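Model the whole thing, not chain by chain.
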Amino acid sequence: MTMIFKTPDAVVPAYSPTGNECALFETAWMRRLPLLLKGPTGCGKTRFVAHMAARLGLPLTTVSCHDDLTASDLTGRYLLKGGDTVWVDGPLTSAVREGGICYLDEVVEARKDVAVVLHPLTDDRRMLPLERTGEELAAPSSFMLIVSYNPGYQNLLKTLKPSTRQRFVAIEFDFLPRDREIAVVASESRLDAAKVAPLVDLARRLRMLKGVDLEEGVSTRLVIYCASLIEAGLPVPEAVRAAMIEPLTDEPDVRAALIELSGSILR
Amino acid sequence: MTMIFKTPDAVVPAYSPTGNECALFETAWMRRLPLLLKGPTGCGKTRFVAHMAARLGLPLTTVSCHDDLTASDLTGRYLLKGGDTVWVDGPLTSAVREGGICYLDEVVEARKDVAVVLHPLTDDRRMLPLERTGEELAAPSSFMLIVSYNPGYQNLLKTLKPSTRQRFVAIEFDFLPRDREIAVVASESRLDAAKVAPLVDLARRLRMLKGVDLEEGVSTRLVIYCASLIEAGLPVPEAVRAAMIEPLTDEPDVRAALIELSGSILR
Amino acid sequence: MTMIFKTPDAVVPAYSPTGNECALFETAWMRRLPLLLKGPTGCGKTRFVAHMAARLGLPLTTVSCHDDLTASDLTGRYLLKGGDTVWVDGPLTSAVREGGICYLDEVVEARKDVAVVLHPLTDDRRMLPLERTGEELAAPSSFMLIVSYNPGYQNLLKTLKPSTRQRFVAIEFDFLPRDREIAVVASESRLDAAKVAPLVDLARRLRMLKGVDLEEGVSTRLVIYCASLIEAGLPVPEAVRAAMIEPLTDEPDVRAALIELSGSILR
Amino acid sequence: MTMIFKTPDAVVPAYSPTGNECALFETAWMRRLPLLLKGPTGCGKTRFVAHMAARLGLPLTTVSCHDDLTASDLTGRYLLKGGDTVWVDGPLTSAVREGGICYLDEVVEARKDVAVVLHPLTDDRRMLPLERTGEELAAPSSFMLIVSYNPGYQNLLKTLKPSTRQRFVAIEFDFLPRDREIAVVASESRLDAAKVAPLVDLARRLRMLKGVDLEEGVSTRLVIYCASLIEAGLPVPEAVRAAMIEPLTDEPDVRAALIELSGSILR
Amino acid sequence: MTMIFKTPDAVVPAYSPTGNECALFETAWMRRLPLLLKGPTGCGKTRFVAHMAARLGLPLTTVSCHDDLTASDLTGRYLLKGGDTVWVDGPLTSAVREGGICYLDEVVEARKDVAVVLHPLTDDRRMLPLERTGEELAAPSSFMLIVSYNPGYQNLLKTLKPSTRQRFVAIEFDFLPRDREIAVVASESRLDAAKVAPLVDLARRLRMLKGVDLEEGVSTRLVIYCASLIEAGLPVPEAVRAAMIEPLTDEPDVRAALIELSGSILR
Amino acid sequence: MTMIFKTPDAVVPAYSPTGNECALFETAWMRRLPLLLKGPTGCGKTRFVAHMAARLGLPLTTVSCHDDLTASDLTGRYLLKGGDTVWVDGPLTSAVREGGICYLDEVVEARKDVAVVLHPLTDDRRMLPLERTGEELAAPSSFMLIVSYNPGYQNLLKTLKPSTRQRFVAIEFDFLPRDREIAVVASESRLDAAKVAPLVDLARRLRMLKGVDLEEGVSTRLVIYCASLIEAGLPVPEAVRAAMIEPLTDEPDVRAALIELSGSILR
């Protein structure tokens, strides 16, 4: 299963930069250099790509990678139709044919042969050869390749080989600064910024526990969930537990500690 | 093999809440937030979902996940029919097309690519892209996604990645409180509540052994089985052994200890 | 390969109970509770099921499970016939359609997705959904599900998950008591009971070595083999070695000890 | 790949018994009990079966088992012929239909589902159910099942489960006694018995090294090879090295020791 | 997925040799000896092959190898077309039929059966047998086989067997000397050589960390990326971080050290 | 991929024996005994077989075995042609039908079921049963089976089982003696024997390092490569490094030592 999203190019999704990522993106785009986005779950990488694509007026194709994603899922395959075999472009091939940004989310999850497909697109050849159809597609100047991954999950089996990594300009992402995050959560949840602030403070506290008691810090998405539940009438402690604690851990001890911690911060 | 159940929306299965789970469900439903149910075997998660679906008048599709369940089992596939290939929706696609609750039971058991299918349905896109048909289904406002799993089984190979977990509001489930459980067992088994009480007491004792001598505590279902056998005429010790001890362990020592324990409680 | 046996319902195979198993079976049948039979190789589980099925006048479908048995082997699949695809029921589906007992022998050997097929048949839904045909079969009141396994083989990879185990009323089986076993062996082998007795005594001694020197004790079947060879004219020591020692071990030391032991008992 | 041999029933291959194996075979045959032959490589198990089959006037089907042998290889499968699917019997099914001995050589090598096929043929049912054709073949009284394996290779992954082993009467095989082996080698190689004798003595010495320096002792076949090479004119030391030493080991030290040993014995 | 590039033979890609590699290539070509190129990521192996192919006027077929590349991907396979099966040459077969250089990049990544295909092409037979079509293609005198791999990745599972390695003349590659690298980066990035020099110095410093803090040194490609970003207006430290530090490591400590190091060198 | 070579029987490839291998081959051929060739990479096993085949006037079929080679690759399979299934002989079947030598190179690399195919061809049955076509091919008296392997690679997973090994007469191969090797290299490379001699001396020194610093010694093929490069004009040290050092090792330390060693020998 490959997931593809073609974002309509009319809307520019809101995005508030935290560093030089927009300038870097635009410079990379000027020189047609491929981009690697690194950062934790839910810190806004996908939103950033959508924002930049809209800003530059480029169509965007997003592919969420997973363990079973093969090169053929990206490039295309022959299917049987009416007793005959017909070639059907995959999302990467479509993006190369039509131009625009192709974004491979969590690329380390994909099968190893995917890297091979990306190599000729990421050096001076800028080309996608389709062995099975005999075509060699030259990427148009409007084509740009972006990949992302979460270094926090990186393990021995799932890494980008240096021969692949060294084909990308890379940007490190992190969570939004406090004020930005409060504004974003308030806007998305319709809850008062004043009521959002302690939730963001709690999230920032919980993120410090990453690698100690928690595998991963709280995403901004979960803070928005929490604020949404509160805005819809759920008591604060119940909303915090359901949206900011239970999704993080199954360990009774850790959970108890988080509940106590959240009680002290939200008091 | 995928198991799907479309519960007819006329009946509202009985369910007696033990905490704020009904309010939490309804608030999540108001904001269309996806829900994650955590809890041990046989504590009523499936019944709870059936109850809430009926109460909210929503059709319910249940998929029991297992080791071989792939994304295609959920979204659909092309099948050969009369020499031609025809697309057949999977249960998740049907639920997205027609609205209602789609409930993936024991979701950690499924193959890894399933998580990828769920991601676009669980963020602000609320969308199910079908690469193979070229469709992008927007989930109707009547669509809600619920997943469950049993943290007791959690191991290194079978966990939800944080990038998936952090897309759900989560509820922790546990067994019913004593009086509730007695009432439920009596009602389902047609055995007198007075005769059910010691069985529930025994079950509550046995649940304390979880992680010590037993892999999992006694489910309410087994207590109902036991009461049913007694109601049908089987002597109490034989019913207890057949329904509340033999299904829990194969270890002769543990079994002997459980028989002695049950004898002392049921005396 | 799936093995199915439809026992003709006219004959009632002989079976002499060793405990409350017949009453327990009948009570479970009255309440339509699914049954789990536990016990060592060759202690009569299969014969017991055949006996009870015939006694209750129920058709019996037996499926011997193995490492490669999948859910589809039980429920059915589409086969190509004359250029078209035709659905063919598996043995479980046939049993659900037509009623009667479906007995899955050594169920832990089967693939993991089999458990998922059994779940909806073993709770209050009593239903077999066939995703591929779009059918949902309600089990008729004449349907009963029985599974068996040998806890002696149980290992980390091959166990029933608690969520599956806790769906069954369970019966523990063991070998026949001495007098019963002598009668059964004499009857099946046509050898005098007086000559059978020392063979049964030897078998009972050998069973004590299980877990020490032997992986498994001698089955009643092997005692019958031994008695048959003697009845056909083979000298006792040769028959004992061929039917009760060589099938148990390949270790020269253990074999020598068993030969000596049998010599001392049969003297 | 399944290997089948239908031995023409006219010839009775020579076989000189070393113990009670012929009487035991005939007694098992009288009571239609299945037989398990255990013993090292090249000690004559296959020849013994061929001999007994011819002596009893029974057609013989031999299947050499290997890692990829499945139950379907034994029972049969549907093949596409002229656009239609046609059932083709496997060797076991043919043997059950037509009667005679079916001999599965090195049965532990086969896949696990093979055991399941054998179970109903090896208890009082004596039946081969063919799920895919819907047939249930009753084995004719002329049918007998024989399996063999080499306990020397036995490891944790490749064993017969007790539930399978305990369905067979078992015979342990070993190499021929000295005089018999000399006679057999002389007869097969056309070399003088006097010249064969030291070769057999060497073989008997080498067999004592099994488990110490050698994985397996020298088979009678290799002694015949050696004698054949000598009879054809090759010098004795060269023949011994090529047929009785190089096939046994690749270790330079062990080889040197064996050459020295053979020199001292053949001097 | 196999990636093939047929470089048009008109252009001669620029390449500045660092040793005797051009003479060695030409001598090997004169004697039609196969060539093995060893060296780190991005040191110019692929460019070297393209350069030599153009210089010798030979068509070039490049195949990037990966974990799933099989012998059939190289030689060809039968495909269904219009109901019939048609043989389609793979890239190696095409190269053998039409002559020229066939270059297998990162050959150790490919499946083991690939080596077998290469053997008859790399000894005095110079032949490609196609079992499935029954053809035996003699390589024309214009055919040359080149393979490459990166010894830095070499591990127990992924190596060339001696029986394969010993069929090639081998060349060890390393990064360009300082002045050459400055010239190449300046030319490709359009940045002043004076501004490129410190970047190359930094790269040379970072390469010394290989095996200590870094898995692999900085490729020339990344230095070109960095210079391109600077030329396009990005501040030097931001360009260095994005193109020469973030692509190398995800470790916060290592990154901080690299930033400090680059600050001290670029000051 | 299976590689087959049918050597035209007109040419007799040059081969200079190092021991009794030719006489042994001919004696084995007289008695139609199967042959096992053992020895290191590039010591001339394949050439020896080609030589003997031509000398005896026998057609030769060579199959290079690899990890994915199955029994069906050797015996044949049904292929779809024009909507019908047609049986196509594999190389072993062809050789059995038409007579001549069938040589399986590096047989331990092949899948386990290949051994089973070889068994009936290597005992007194000399027969190839084709289960799928129902044929039983008796090998003609002109048929001989030869297998080879390199004991240096032997590991726990890749060995010949004793039951297979003990079906072959075996010959151990080693490199040519000094004078022979000089003559062969001079003849194949067209370089003066005087200039070849130090290269062979170097090779003989390097072979002593096998198992210490090198996985495998230098093959005669590499010495020929080296002499060819020198004859074509490359300086001796460059040729030695490219053809006799770089193909042997990737370890910088080992390489430096080998360069020094070669310098001292070639001085």
